[in-house]
Amino acid sequence: MTARRLDGKQLAQTMQAEIAEETAKLLHHGIRPGLAAVLVGDNPASQIYVRNKRRACDKAGIASFLHELPAGTSEAELLELIDRLNADPAVHGILVQLPLPKHIDESTIVDAVSPLKDVDGFGPHSLGLLAAGRPRFLACTPHGVLQLLVRNDIPLAGAHVVVVGRSNIVGKPLALILMQKGIDATVTVCHSRSRDLTALTRSADVVVAALGRAHFLRADTIRPGAVVVDVGINRLPDGSLVGDVDFEPVSEVASAITPVPGGVGPMTITMLLYNTLQAARLSRKTRQSS
Ligand code: NAP
């Protein structure tokens, strides 16, 4: 079997065009969705991520505001900026690029972002609403995974999905999303302490690898015909980027698979734009009802 490739690059283009259309409609009502990106320090990877996110905003007609702060910025100074952005009506979404320098507590900063502007979907309010079955902003990477599956007609209702990884930004919210009423997957979440991981992954209709270990999922850990989603991004010593899945051999066993790069990655940025548009719509509703 040679697996169908689930093309995130293509889907991201399609969805970003849809988002641009919706953004243009909102502009007719006098609202331009705006995203504030906060970058602390000079981590080169973070600089690239922020640049790509801003470029995607521009293409979709979303305003982006960059706040670059030196690595020595104190937690109090960063909180002061977040407060200002929370109060700024031109800013609908706030993105604080992680990781932050060690002397700043990430949870304190994530918690300080207004729940109405939490377009990363990491905040406790967003996660709490999702857990309560009333989602507002879905975390971008898990939402991207969902869109890749749904828009490629991968059946999820009643399917057994095994998620490898339980981080707050990928594994945990993805499990909550997939078990929502209406999506109706049966979800198993695995982590580094899970016993007999291979038996678990081999029992899955859909396996999502989100652990950050190059080529971890091999062909013999997948049931023939399973769908495989690779969230991992790992840089090899030769500089190349690979996922958590051993792509070529697993492609011979799976029925569908996402590549790295060009799979989940482009979808993450797309869902950030989607959330920013949603946040702008939300601000309009809030304005109308006050
Ligand atoms: P993380 O916070 O390091 O979490 C990794 C998870 O994998 C943890 O829950 C860990 O278990 C589990 N794990 C580690 N080794 C394992 C093993 N041998 N067996 C089973 N589980 C194991 O990572 P993350 O932030 O979720 O990111 C995961 C990967 O996705 C990384 O490669 C990251 O670069 C990538 N990523 C990609 C995107 C994208 O846009 N495509 C976005 C975000 C992240 P414990 O909890 O027990 O430690």
Strand order of the largest sheet: 1-11-8-7-5-6
CATH top level label of the largest domain? Alpha Beta
The number of distinct helices, counting runs of at least 4 residues, comes to 10
Average pLDDT: 97
Question: What percent of the residues sit in helical stretches (DSSP H or I)?
Answer: 40-55%
Total beta-strand segments: 11
Q: Beta-sheet strand percentage?
A: 15-25%
Radius of gyration: 19 Å
Sequence stretches where pLDDT stays below 50 over 5 or more residues = none
CATH architecture of the largest domain: 3-Layer(aba) Sandwich
List the helices and strands in order. EHEHEHEHHHEHEHEEEEHEH
CATH fold naming of the largest domain: Rossmann fold
Write a brief structural summary:
This protein is of the alpha/beta class and 290 residues long. It contains ten helices and eleven strands. A six-stranded parallel β-sheet has the order 1-11-8-7-5-6. The protein has a three-stranded parallel β-sheet with strand order 3-2-4, sandwiched between helices. It has a two-stranded antiparallel sheet with strand order 9-10.
How would you characterize this protein structure?
It is a single chain. By secondary structure, this protein is α/β, with parallel strands linked by helices. The chain is built from ten helices and eleven strands. The protein has helices at residues 8-28, 44-60, 75-87, 106-112, 124-131, 140-150, 171-178, 197-202, 247-251, 264-289; strands spanning 4-5, 34-40, 63-69, 93-96, 160-164, 186-190, 206-209, 227-230, 234-235, 241-242, 256-257. Helix 6 (140-150) crosses helix 10. The radius of gyration is 19 Å and the shape is globular. The model has no long low-confidence stretch (mean pLDDT 97). Bound molecules: NADP nicotinamide-adenine-dinucleotide phosphate. The site of NADP nicotinamide-adenine-dinucleotide phosphate has 25 residues, from helix 10.
